[in-house]
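Ligand: NAP. Inputs:
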Amino acid sequence: MEYRTLGGTGIRVSVAGLGCGGFSRLGLGTGKSEADAIELVHEALDLGINLFDTAAVYGTEAVLGRALAGVPRDRIVIATKAWIPRGAGASAAEVAVASLDRSLGELGTDYIDIFQLHGVSPGAYERASAVIAPALAREREKGKLRHLGVTETGAGDPQHEMLARAVEDGVWGTIMVAFHMMHQNARERVFPRAIANRVGTLSMFAVRNIFSQPRRLRVELQRLAAHGEVAQWLGQAPNPLGFLIHEADGGATSVVDAAYRFVRHEPGVDVVLFGTGNPAHLRADVASILKPPLPETDRRILKKHFGRLVGIGLDPPTDMPSFARH
Ligand SMILES: NC(=O)c1ccc[n+]([C@@H]2O[C@H](COP(=O)([O-])OP(=O)(O)OC[C@H]3O[C@@H](n4cnc5c(N)ncnc54)[C@H](OP(=O)(O)O)[C@@H]3O)[C@@H](O)[C@H]2O)c1
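Predicted complex:
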């Protein structure tokens, strides 16, 4: 594993972080048992992963807590999140603090390393920074959390309007940002200022459905080609990203491999979050994240064809209630 310092937080984190949400939810979202999920977390630890990202709404805090119970607390970095409903009104800060207290209980820990506000829309940002963050800062003084973070909504804010503000105002130690081969605009809109202000970055959506399901990718590229948003050949090819796969001279071994390597080496990305419930995928994904960058020619082609696309492949899990689709 490789480690790096997460922005100005000073925390040493593995460059691969296990996401406990998304479609997989440690496998609980794809029919696996809690025992399987615990085994997966143990295998992640064996691979050197020390950062785990969960959330109150994922339903994985308790199983993650059980899986990490025997591990010295200072060897792991726990990130979780509070979802604040729009209708919380004047009690938004109390809702956040109550969520923090519940997360501590579910995870079975005395403190959260990175406590994040979950899926904050541009319209909810003012409340998040001016009302909720100060209340959570008081909880930090009590030792319940180490750093505050904020995550964007993905599909609801494809231009990263919320994060463009968050990286400037000194409130957040970390941000979570959507970035992948066909949604690259964080390169201009988020990363330069996150680097300048030493805000730690966790990337999400590296693969999701669009790169893990060949049919989804084909259909999306057909749609984009029909609208003139990508070259016609990309809409017609049976394996449109096949040009990335040429292992013999440093190219990718698969589209998923390419997707993780693409994100991992982007300047400004500290941690690549990845989600899986499948031990073989866990091993493959970590291996991909630790490989060198994609060849320069392939990165140039990805930028040329997809660099202007916005908001592709950010679809939420449909089997979760709308408030929990992150
Ligand atoms: N707004 C937010 O706060 C927000 C939103 C989205 C995500 N997140 C965080 O980011 C994390 C990562 O997002 P994500 O879970 O969507 O991860 P992801 O890595 O982008 O995509 C994971 C998907 O790809 C599949 N997959 C993984 N490795 C594979 C492989 N080698 N071959 C084929 N398929 C593979 C997984 O299914 P299998 O189980 O079959 O491997 C899963 O469906 C989440 O878990 C969560 O912690 C936060």
